[in-house]
Design goal:
The protein is built from 20 helices and 22 strands. With 604 residues, the protein is α/β, with parallel strands linked by helices. Helix 1 crosses helix 2 and helix 16 runs parallel beside helix 17.
Length: 604
């Protein structure tokens, strides 16, 4: 063993490696991304690591490997689990041979997601065991326990961590290479009665799953991560139940005070016997959790089942906020109300000044700004709808661009544009999608549009990376997660293979040709596509920065009012460019009506 200072996601990855995984697959999504990246970086050799085209593909690849006896890890964020749920709901009935852990990073807040979702509730829905770590060190050991349980019960197992565990840091003890578990897959053994799902098999296995989960409830009451901590006698009739990072918040909020405590590390199957031990002789319990009232409902059920007269409080009773991320201050206020007192360190402090408003914005020089601006200029005066998607380009909704009228989930913009067209055929419908998202979930939407005779313009914003989640490769980049150089999948070839006859590619930073390309394509009937291709500014270096000639500048503010670039400001009646932000993209130079800006040299 040796000690390392690790991010939670790094610890999860190293725990999986120590458990002897043979394959890891996933799709990038904050706050889960660093898990797969760390597996690739710290790969001791022999682990196949891949960024799959989406979470469904990752789930199925890992399932196939687990059918063969491999230990497999699947990574995604909570909304990615929605994409992977189709194979997962059948996989729970089929089961696996090798250990298979589905690592889902939940995002209370949400900080970087469309929605708040609690994978603990999904575990109950899908009848799969779930592990819920409370710290970085516990995440490291717990994921190894998850692989052990999965292999023993021959079922996938969830491992759910939230943002504050995923991105927290801690110095922890980790195993040396020689201490890693070694797993040698047996290989796939044909048995259609086991691996081919039919209704008869599902009915039989459903009954076995229910029986297994009832037995696991008893077994997990003895799992070390599930604990009851006796009180100090000051609060003999009060108890607090918590889980995950909220366990740490609760201990901090208590500040040394000690009612009876229950820590839940396996919310499903719920450890009923341990819960009964905790609840006996208590009058009231406060459940501190996020996001759903999972523990609160489970304890309420246990009270009813075992005839325990305990008042269970939490989200359902208004003691804990029903939505959003908890923090120490929120938990401290709830704990103090519950205990009927104020902590010694709760002296009223002066209110801090409000934080400055910093709305998210496209980076200076981002080619997406040029793409949106080109479309906006091309379609001036026409009835249009701009359907957006998930990625950096969602920020096209901000003023002054205002080019994102809808945004639902990955890949949805293409289909939403079709729905609007079929109801309003006089509307020019546009669908924006990124290059990574096109491969993840956009292709089927284009097929649907072509087949069902929609009239829309597809705009593929190709910046040659998966930018928002940290610049991971995708099928269009020609590089794999393991660093292999492979042949790129051509977006143009895919679109033409679907049947599109108008597929044009242009550099959005060449403003006039970009505008003309959009005008030309949008005038064509049916489904047509414009691919705006220019590299992300975060992975390229500026060659020259633009400068404003103050003598020429007339102070019209067109560059500022129309582009909204954070590198452009206005001072003393003149436009000013921030050298520390400018990438020399030249877009502002091209739209300046008096040619007062020059010197930029955009990247090819």
């Amino acid at each position: 063993m040796h000690k390392e200072f690790l991010m939670g996601n790094e610890a999860i990855a190293l725990g999986a490696i120590a458990a002897g995984i043979n394959l890891a697959a996933g799709y990038p999504g904050t706050p889960s991304t660093e898990v797969l990246e760390t597996v690739a970086k710290r790969n001791p050799g022999g682990i196949h690591v891949e960024w799959s085209v989406n979470e469904k593909a990752a789930m199925e690849v890992a399932a196939g490997a687990a059918y063969s006896g491999a230990r497999t890890l699947v990574t995604m964020k909570q909304v990615g689990l929605n994409v992977a749920s189709d194979p997962l709901m059948s996989l729970e009935y089929i089961g696996v041979k090798g250990g298979m852990v589905i690592m889902v990073a939940d995002d209370p807040g949400p900080i970087s997601s469309q929605t708040e979702q609690d994978t603990r509730s999904f575990a109950s829905f899908s009848k799969l065991p779930l592990f819920d770590p409370s710290s970085v060190s516990e995440a490291y050991t717990m994921i190894q326990d998850a692989f052990g349980l999965s292999e023993r019960i021959k079922s996938p197992v969830f491992f759910r961590a939230t943002t504050r565990v995923d991105h927290g840091y801690e110095a922890i003890d980790v195993k040396d290479t020689g201490e890693y578990n070694t797993n040698t897959p047996e290989g796939f053994i044909k048995d259609s009665s086991k691996w081919v799902i039919f209704p008869r098999l599902s009915v039989k296995n459903h009954a076995l799953i229910e029986k297994r989960n009832a037995e696991l409830s008893d077994e997990l009451s003895s799992y070390p991560g599930n604990t009851v901590k006796a009180g100090d006698g000051k609060y003999p009739r009060l108890g607090i139940a918590s889980h995950g990072v909220n366990w740490g918040y609760t201990l901090d909020a208590l500040g040394g005070r000690l009612p009876r405590l229950l820590k839940i590390a396996t919310p499903f199957p719920f450890p009923e016997k341990l819960a009964v031990e905790f609840l006996t002789d208590l009058d009231e319990v406060l459940c501190v959790e996020e996001l759903d009232p999972v523990i609160e409902r489970a304890l309420t059920y246990v009270c009813g089942k075992y005839g325990l007269k305990v008042n269970i409080r939490g989200k359902l009773t208004g003691d804990i906020p029903p939505a959003g991320e908890n923090n120490v201050d929120i938990v401290k206020a709830a704990v103090n109300r519950f205990l009927g007192e104020t902590a010694e360190d709760d002296a009223k402090l002066p209110e801090p000044p409000p934080l400055p408003v910093r709305p998210p914005v496209l980076c200076a020089g981002c080619p997406h700004r040029a793409s949106f601006y080109a479309v906006k200029q091309a379609m001036k005066g026409q009835k249009t709808v701009y359907c957006g998607d998930i990625g950096c380009y969602t920020l096209g909704n901000a003023q002054p661009l205002d080019m994102c009228d809808t945004c639902l989930c990955m890949g949805a913009g293409i289909n939403i544009a079709q729905g609007i067209y079929h109801i309003e055929p006089d509307t020019k419908c546009f669908a924006f999608v990124g290059d990574s998202t096109f491969f993840a979930s956009g292709i089927t939407g284009v097929v649907n549009a072509f087949y069902n005779q929609a009239d829309l313009t597809l705009i593929v914003l190709d910046n040659s990376t998966t930018a928002m989640t940290g610049h991971q490769p995708h099928p269009g980049t020609g590089v794999t997660a393991m660093g292999q150089i492979v042949e790129k999948v051509s977006t143009e070839a895919v679109l033409r293979a679907i049947g599109l006859t108008t597929v044009e590619t242009v550099d959005p930073l060449d403003h006039k040709p970009a505008v003309e390309t959009v005008k030309r394509a949008a005038a064509q009937p049916g489904v047509k596509a414009v691919i705006f291709r220019s590299p992300c500014v975060a992975v390229t270096k500026p060659k020259g920065r633009s400068k404003v000639n103050a003598d020429k500048c007339v102070g019209c503010r067109r560059c500022i009012k129309e582009l909204g670039c954070p590198g452009l400001t206005f001072r003393d009646g003149k436009a000013v460019i921030d050298d520390s932000l400018c990438t020399g993209c030249t877009l502002c130079e091209q739209i300046c009506p008096v040619s007062a800006i020059s010197g930029g040299e955009k990247n090819a």
